[in-house]
Amino acid sequence: MKTARSEALFERAQSIIPGGVNSPVRAFRGVGGAPRFIVRGEGSRVYDADGNEYIDYVCSWGPLLLGHRPPQVIAALREILEEGTSFGAPTEREVLLAELISQTVPSMEMVRLVNSGTEATMSALRLARGFTGRDLTIKFEGCYHGHVDSLLVKAGSGMATLGIADAAGVPPAFAETTIALPFNSIAAVEAAFKTHGDKIASVIVEPVVGNMGCVPPSPGFLEALRDLTARHGTLLIFDEVMTGFRLALGGAQARFGIKPDLTTLGKIIGGGLPIAAYGGRKDIMRKVAPLGAVYQAGTLSGNPLAVAAGLATLCHLTAHPEIYDLLETRSAQLALLKTMTPPGVTINRAGSMFTLFFSSDPVTDWESAKRCDTARFAKFFHFLLERGIYIAPSQFEAGFVSAAHSEKDISATVDAAREFFKAGG
Ligand SMILES: *Cc1c(COP(=O)(O)O)cnc(C)c1O
User: How far apart are CA 243 and CA 307, in angstroms?
Assistant: First the structure.
């Protein structure tokens, strides 16, 4: 496989952009080699600067539930380009998008649009503090909620891949407002509430974790969070930036039947353009400026292009809920790999999110995710990449199946993975 052009571009990029990338997870750090510079995407495929074609399971790290360049989204973008790119004034489509989100995710009685998942979680945390008059936040080890200062404590995703335990530049006073607990441990949450009781403003959680690899909640864990937070006047925040509109139309909260106080969305709701949202109970959301004193703003918030792409995506999904059955079928086909692998391999999956861990033990939290053989994962990654299959270069990330992946795409992927194991990898 030729990579000369990607390598040359990476050289240039590294001298002008830190690490040559605009987000650390793209850098292939830890697995070596130049990241592939992508020139085009179509359906389930991406194409790099050297002309190589890949079946793409990164899907822009989650947003592309419908694959690359779905016709509905492209048409909506063409239409909006005739009208303008940004007004800094309200538009009808923002109302439509907020209404559609609220109808599909009923716990989000009011919705505020922002530009990134990071902004959404940062704002939700601030709102929870403003609403409760308390300062502390409980998060879970290995969950990633964007690069919010106080949430870069034992965070997953790129922090986990690079082995950064404590992010530099975060004042200790910020980090001290965060209590990081093991995911899936009800006992740890109970103990934290016993000690800190009425000082905890919010509990923020990825209801199905994607950012230490895919780790689903144990039965009863989310229910216990709902129960404990309600009893202590603490707000429960579901960070559904990854799971929203992926695990079900109504996200993980619909799948598990739990109603959080606040929810953050991102990724899929922008259809591949930068948008995110936070929302929840009306009495809480009414504290946001200009109604209340919790300040949050954005020059490009509700950007017409991003709103149009998001609206086209969500309209298509709500009109075609059978897409979720298709995603389940394809993802189950991929997870069949589990029955064909030698010992020492664990596959976690929730809907169209999955991770293959090199571990004989179940992966249920940050400690068990960290114990996996990441060197072997790196070999697996390169083996697949060389065969035109593009998965995230780190085990601390989820893979994504999109509606554009065909049965043939999946069987080609399963075959390539089996080849790796047959070759003793
Ligand atoms: C991706 C992600 C974020 C951060 O979103 P950005 O748009 O990258 O800032 C936050 N929370 C979760 C669960 C995510 O997966």
Answer: 19
- Distance, CA of 225 to CA of 209 (rounded, Å): 15
Q: Which H or E run includes 205?
A: strand 200-205
Under DSSP, is residue 252 helix (H, G, I), strand (E, B) or coil?
Answer: helix
**Using CA atoms, how far apart are residues 199 and 234, in angstroms rounded to an integer?**
9
Cα-to-centroid distance, 207 and ligand 1 (Å): 13
Fold of 71-319: Aspartate Aminotransferase; domain 2 (3.40.640)
Q: List the 353-357 sheet strands across, edge first.
A: 346-350, 353-357, 399-400
| CA end-to-end span of the chain | 20
Spatial CB neighbours of 188, under 8 Å, sequence gap ≥ 6: 181, 182
Region 99-109 average pLDDT = 98
Whether 273 contacts 310, CB under 8 Å:
yes
Regarding the beta carbon of 397 and ligand 1, being less than 6 Å apart is answered no
pLDDT greater than 80 at residue 165: no
Place of tokens 């229910």: 223
> What class does CATH assign to 4-68+321-422?
alpha beta
C-beta neighbour count of 109 within 10 angstroms: 15
The reply to whether ligand 1 has any atom less than 6 angstroms from the CB of 117 is yes
Q: Decide if 324 is catalytic.
A: no
Longest CA span, the chain: 63
Question: Chain-wide mean pLDDT for the chain?
Answer: 96
CA of 316 to the centre of ligand 1 (A): 23
Identified catalytic residue from 54, 56, 154, 239: 239
Q: What is the pLDDT of residues 298-355, one digit of tens each?
A: 999 999 999 999 999 999 999 999 999 999 999 999 999 999 988 999 999 999 999 9
Q: Which of 146, 85, 148, 121 is nearest to 302 (CA)?
A: 85
**354 contacts 214 by C-beta, under 8 angstroms:** yes
Q: Taking 90 as the threshold, does the pLDDT of residue 166 lie above it?
A: no
Closest CA to 341 of 362, 329, 365, 358: 358
- Identical fold between 4-68+321-422 and 71-319: no
In the chain, where the domains are located: 4-68+321-422, 71-319
Local confidence band at 238 (pLDDT 50, 70, 90 cut-offs): very high
As a three-state string, the secondary structure of 105-160 is CCCCCEEEEECCHHHHHHHHHHHHHHHHCCCEEEEECCCCCCCCHHHCECCCCHHH
Which pLDDT score, from 0 to 100, does residue 163 have?
Answer: 81
